[in-house]
Amino acid sequence: MSPVNFLLPLLVCSLVPISSLKKMAPKVERVLENFIVGEAPHWDVATQNLYFIDCPGKSINRYDPVTKSHHQAVTDGNRVAFFIPVEGKQNDYIIGIDNELVHIVWDGTSNKIEKWEKLVEVPDKQVQFNDGKADPAGRLWTGTMAVITPSGDVPPNKGAFYSLENGQLKQHIGEVHISNGLAWNSDLKKMYYIDSGRRTVDEFDYDQENGTISNRKPIFTLEKHNIPGIPDGMTIDSDGNLWVAVFLGSRVIKIDPRKPETLLDTVTLPALQVTSAAFGGPNLDELYVTTGRDTRMSKHLQPPVDGALYRVTNTGSKGLPSNKVKISV
């Protein structure tokens, strides 16, 4: 072999960045602890804060990662479902609580909610709201599930899936087991949705102007990939991939919704009950993951590992800004 041929591979390797030779593993960091069931994380770009809830803890929460400060207020009611800022109104939020949608005012610091106004309710008190998000137009989408029994069971197919239209609930789907994760793709033609009882991630054709969905089909099935647990909350990244929290599965999975049944990556977490995820941080490249320690469903779960808020970095992905609710309140 000539000296040139011998040196060529070494020269080529020297030109390749080390980062391209080995992918950095995601870093999982515990940032807050001791929630019963943390859920519904929402990153607010304006304040650079994370908002989330503790469902059975009846609380709304704000976390400032710069100051590492955490503020919490306990609500009136039995169970909080989600907590979303209102567009154009400082300190105003829409929350789901029990079977009601409520407008509140909270300064983000005190342990008291200043204003409490019911907007609408589902007449059946045997169901409760669970998870909700605003679409890119600011329209609120949320669903329900049966009230959880003392043993932790959820009677099947008692819920429904709604949008909030002109102060009224518009039902899109019935016979829902546990209405959960939501996301929209960047061209606003698809909506992704999870009914946890199906153990699938589903896709709808989405008409933003009319607020309608159609042509439902599953795009990822946990059973086909031997993934334990059930799909819960989810978010979408700037590349169009979904990040799905797996409750009772100790993981967040990254899937490509454009290629059915395509698992791209798995981030393992120490907590068993992984509930939801949202991208945050100044560059939207930090994945915040909520977890639970509900002993009705899983015995012997303990803080600080279970029921913690985690931050995952080095995923190689960035998220999209979370949508606020646009509503006259």
Automatic annotation (TrEMBL):
Record's subcellular location: Cytoplasm
Organism field: Agrilus planipennis (Emerald ash borer)
Signal peptide start-end: 1-21
Cellular component annotations (GO), alphabetically ordered: cytoplasm
Cofactor info, note text: Binds 1 divalent metal cation per subunit.
Organism phylogeny: Eukaryota, Metazoa, Ecdysozoa, Arthropoda, Hexapoda
Name of the featured protein: Regucalcin
Catalytic site: 232
Signal listed as a keyword: yes
Primary location class: cytoplasm
GO biological process: L-ascorbic acid biosynthetic process
One annotated GO molecular function: gluconolactonase activity
Protein keywords: Calcium, Cytoplasm, Hydrolase, Metal-binding, Signal, Zinc
Pfam (any one): SGL
Domain of life: Eukaryota
Annotated binding of substrate, by residue: 130
Catalytic activity: D-glucono-1,5-lactone + H2O = D-gluconate + H(+)
Residues of the SMP-30/Gluconolactonase/LRE-like region domain: 37-292
Database matches in SUPFAM superfamilies: Calcium-dependent phosphotriesterase (SSF63829)
InterPro entries hit by this protein: 6-blade_b-propeller_TolB-like (IPR011042), SGL (IPR013658), SMP-30 (IPR005511)
Entry's family note: Belongs to the SMP-30/CGR1 family.
